[in-house]
């Protein structure tokens, strides 16, 4: 009797938002350096890491073995978008994602999001916030009044909880 389990190549994930699908596709485009519609080992590893997934050599090799095109040691845009990265994205824990986002605000000298970290983030997205606006944002969510947003306060903001 034939197995009913879908092969990795025939499986399609439709659980991702359009925004997530676009981010994944954009990552592929950025790392498909020679624009041939495929990524090799190094491009695949860089793209997956850029999407926020810590991946080791063995993980990249497994993906290539499962989705590799014959004689190329590469993975196509379709397979990259539809299967391995989509699986990883769908399996993400939203709270872990929020914690990861929080850490992106921090630098080596900070233990919370204060005005300098908020300023840097605002500049990165070309958002012009005044010092007063940034102080107000911190003050609104800084429950322990230490003039910075710690991880728990950040999670409360993201989860819209107190």
- The CATH topology assignment of the largest domain is Recoverin, domain 1
Shape: elongated
Stretches with pLDDT under 50, minimum 5 residues: 1-13
Helix content: 55-70%
Mean pLDDT rating: 81
Write the element-wise H/E pattern from the N-terminal end onward.
Answer: HEHHEHHHHHH
Q: SSE layout and pairings?
A:
Layout: H1 18-31, E1 38-40, H2 41-50, H3 57-67, E2 74-76, H4 77-82, H5 84-90, H6 94-105, H7 115-124, H8 131-141, H9 151-159
Antiparallel strand pairs: 1-2
Helix pairs in contact: 1-2, 6-9
Structure, described:
It contains 9 helices and 2 strands. The protein is mainly alpha-helical and 162 residues long. The longest helix is centred in the N-terminal third of the chain and has 14 residues, at 18-31. The chain has a two-stranded antiparallel sheet with strand order 1-2. It has 2 domains: 18-90, Orthogonal Bundle (Recoverin, domain 1), CATH 1.10.238.10; 94-159, Recoverin, domain 1 (Orthogonal Bundle), CATH 1.10.238.10. Helix 1 (18-31) crosses helix 2 and helix 6 crosses helix 9.
Distinctive features:
2 strands, two-stranded antiparallel ribbon, Recoverin, domain 1, disordered N terminus, mainly alpha, 2 domains, 162 residues
């Amino acid at each position: 009797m034939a197995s009913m389990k879908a092969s990795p190549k025939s499986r399609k994930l439709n659980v991702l938002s359009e925004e997530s699908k676009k981010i994944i596709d954009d990552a592929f485009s950025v790392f498909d350096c020679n624009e041939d519609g495929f990524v090799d080992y190094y491009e695949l590893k860089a793209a997956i890491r850029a999407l926020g997934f810590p991946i080791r050599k063995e993980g990249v090799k497994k993906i290539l073995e499962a989705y590799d095109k014959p004689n190329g040691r590469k993975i196509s845009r379709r397979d990259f978008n539809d299967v391995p990265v989509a699986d990883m994205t769908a399996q993400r824990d939203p709270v872990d994602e929020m914690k990861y986002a929080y850490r992106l605000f921090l630098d080596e000298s900070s233990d919370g999001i204060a005005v300098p970290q908020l300023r840097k983030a605002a500049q990165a997205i070309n958002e012009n916030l005044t010092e007063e606006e940034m102080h107000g944002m911190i003050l609104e969510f800084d429950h322990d009044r230490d003039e910075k947003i710690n991880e728990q306060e950040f999670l409360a903001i993201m989860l819209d909880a107190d």
